[in-house]
């Protein structure tokens, strides 16, 4: 890899040379590499599909094989397409950030593959040297049955249509937001960077819940391996806390833009935006991590049925056949600390904003300042209202029917990711104009 000697290319753009001395043979070299790429994709996808659909293969050895196939698939996706781009002459230039990202994934996946191979060696050691304890060591799996919405089983098919529609709109809307912000230079500002992070988090949150819901509603796939249930629980609560942190960051962005606009560019620099995003992620990861660890120590003897549409923390804790005071205390302390802290910071920001706005002499200036906050306020209401209802009914709303609680808890995860891109698309002129230009280019030209 070398820097391209071209004044039009920035110093952070590199040129991948490929195979020095074999440039004339690139068309021929592309043939075996294309075949290898096709075999990587088809072969590993086939292995994953077979292991997933064949019950007799739901054993540790084949789980490790599925992990190896998934790692190999990711490794191929992170490297071979770059090689083919060079050999086909499509793209040799790569930015510094893309180069660093590829380096991270290549070496990270290589370490993962080594770890999986070590685990497979341990699997074979246990199966051959200690076969009588093989099942107790490696297959001590507990199966969780997720009911769905109790009392509404006859309507699961119709409910699934709504979930599928919300999930599709979430993926489409947030993808459009991300692409629009990436393509429109005027949107390369802190507020829209936070919006882009929010869109990615919304897609991840919806993807961690909606597919399993659809499996329950449409395919009667109620079974869930206990560790996978814990993984889903961890990701759901982590993404929820990240979302709350991003809403705080966006409130701080509006506070700086309205109350101290002359220092906006010096305070909310790109490194600061990245640090705020990473800070929100780190907080969520560390706060939620003890939840599955505390659950793992609990004994579960008889009940493995969750009356819910996904693995929620308190729903899993209630299944334990032991004292769960520590789990319940930690869960409620995390929820309260996040809500009180984040809502307090958001409220403080908007009190300062309102004070600054009402000091403006011009009515037009007031309206314009408040208009920039409208989309964020709508997002806050959409995100926190069902969350507060779900939190309160789960703990003090004893008379609320379980089906109502479960519906609101599900909407809390599905509606905000769907509504957020619509709110920002309607309220933000730059995004609205760019989206219109993407889907109706002739209309945009005629208006200009």
Q: SSE layout and pairings?
A:
Elements: E1 2-3, E2 13-15, H1 26-53, H2 60-87, E3 93-95, H3 96-129, H4 134-138, E4 143-146, H5 156-183, H6 190-207, H7 210-219, E5 223-225, H8 226-259, H9 264-267, H10 270-288, H11 290-296, E6 305-306, H12 313-317, H13 325-358, H14 363-395, H15 402-427, H16 429-439, H17 441-447
Parallel strand pairs: 4-6
Antiparallel strand pairs: 1-2, 2-3, 4-5
What is the terminal-to-terminal distance?
44 Å
Tally of separate helices: 17
- Shape assignment: globular
The CATH superfamily of the largest domain is identified as Rhodopsin 7-helix transmembrane proteins
How many structural domains?
2
- Give the C-alpha Rg: 26 Å
Helix content: over 70%
Largest sheet: 3 strands, antiparallel
Specify the CATH class of the largest domain. Answer: Mainly Alpha
Strand order of the largest sheet: 1-2-3
Strand content: under 5%
- Indicate the mean pLDDT: 81
Provide the CATH architecture of the largest domain.
Up-down Bundle
Give the ordered list of helices and strands. Answer: EEHHEHHEHHHEHHHHEHHHHHH
Structural class: mainly alpha
CATH topology (level 3) name of the largest domain = Rhopdopsin 7-helix transmembrane proteins
Low-confidence stretches: 1-10, 444-448
Q: What is the number of strand segments?
A: 6
């Amino acid at each position: 890899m070398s820097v391209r000697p071209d004044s039009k290319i920035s110093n952070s753009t590199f040129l991948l040379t490929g195979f020095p001395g074999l440039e004339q043979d690139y068309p021929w070299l592309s043939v075996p590499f294309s075949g290898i790429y096709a075999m990587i994709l088809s072969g590993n996808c086939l292995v994953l599909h077979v292991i997933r659909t064949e019950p007799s293969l739901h054993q540790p050895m084949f789980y490790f094989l599925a992990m190896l196939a998934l790692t190999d698939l990711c490794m191929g996706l992170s490297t071979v397409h770059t090689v083919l781009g060079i050999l086909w002459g499509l793209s040799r230039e790569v930015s510094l950030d893309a180069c660093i990202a590829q380096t991270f994934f290549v070496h990270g996946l290589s370490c993962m593959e080594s770890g999986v191979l070590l685990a497979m060696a341990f699997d074979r050691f246990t199966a051959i040297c200690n076969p009588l304890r093989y099942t107790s060591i490696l297959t001590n799996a507990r199966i969780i049955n997720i009911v769905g919405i109790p009392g509404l089983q006859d309507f699961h098919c119709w409910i699934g249509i709504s979930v599928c529609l919300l999930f599709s709109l979430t993926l489409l809307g947030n993808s459009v937001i991300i692409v629009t912000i990436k393509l429109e230079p005027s949107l390369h500002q802190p507020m829209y960077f936070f919006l882009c992070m929010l869109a990615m988090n919304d897609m991840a949150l919806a993807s961690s819940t909606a597919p399993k819901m659809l499996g329950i509603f449409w395919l009667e796939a109620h079974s869930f391996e206990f560790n996978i249930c814990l993984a889903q629980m961890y990701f759901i609560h982590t993404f929820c806390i990240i979302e709350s942190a991003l809403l705080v960051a966006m409130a701080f962005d509006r506070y700086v833009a309205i109350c101290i606009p002359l220092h906006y560019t010096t305070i909310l620099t790109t490194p600061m935006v990245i640090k705020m995003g990473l800070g929100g992620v780190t907080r969520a990861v560390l706060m939620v991590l003890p939840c599955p660890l505390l659950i793992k120590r609990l004994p579960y003897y008889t009940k493995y049925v969750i009356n819910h549409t996904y693995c929620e923390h308190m729903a899993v804790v209630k299944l334990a056949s032991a004292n769960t005071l520590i789990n319940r205390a930690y869960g409620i302390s995390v929820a309260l600390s996040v809500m009180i802290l984040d809502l307090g910071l958001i409220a403080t920001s908007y009190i300062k904003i309102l004070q600054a706005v009402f000091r403006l002499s011009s009515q037009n200036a007031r309206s314009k300042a408040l208009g920039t906050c409208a989309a964020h306020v709508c997002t806050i209401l959409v995100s926190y209202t069902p969350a507060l209802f779900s939190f309160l009914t789960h703990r003090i709303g004893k008379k609320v029917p379980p089906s109502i609680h479960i519906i609101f808890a599900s909407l809390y995860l599905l509606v905000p990711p769907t509504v957020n891109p619509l709110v920002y698309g309607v309220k933000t002129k730059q995004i609205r104009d760019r989206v219109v230009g993407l889907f109706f280019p002739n209309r945009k030209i005629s208006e200009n």
